UniProtKB/TrEMBL annotation:
SUPFAM superfamilies found in the cross-reference section: Nucleotide-diphospho-sugar transferases
Highest taxon, organism lineage: Bacteria
Biased composition (Polar residues): 84-94
Region (Disordered): 73-100
Organism: Streptomyces glebosus
Protein name, UniProt field: Glycosyltransferase
Length: 100
């Protein structure tokens, strides 16, 4: 098994809501198709992040975690946000694993 890197890996994403994500793909795709692509990309990213041997992983999500966030929500307990430049946006969800 490889050693853990003394680093934190941060993923910043938006909830894949039609009309709110991947808007440059519409047209030719519908907002629903673009959101499905964003959802698949986020799920793939989170699966990959779980394989990286880092000290800590953090998901900062603008919105509500859905099925695409399952890799993070089942492995990373929810943690309060710690922001230095003002308050946390009201719709943000921060999920982090515990440092090892």
């Amino acid at each position: 098994m490889s050693a853990r890197l003394p680093a934190t890996l941060l993923v910043i994403a938006k909830e894949p809501v039609p009309g709110r994500v991947k808007t440059r793909l519409t047209p030719p795709y519908t907002p629903q198709e673009a959101a499905a692509l964003a959802e698949a990309a986020l799920a793939d990213t989170l699966h990959t992040v779980l394989k990286v041997p880092v000290r800590r992983r953090v998901l900062v999500l603008d919105g509500v975690p859905g099925p695409c966030c399952r890799p993070a929500s089942t492995s990373w307990p929810r943690a309060p946000a710690a922001w230095t430049s003002g308050s946390r946006p009201p719709s943000a969800t921060v999920t982090a694993d515990r440092p090892s």
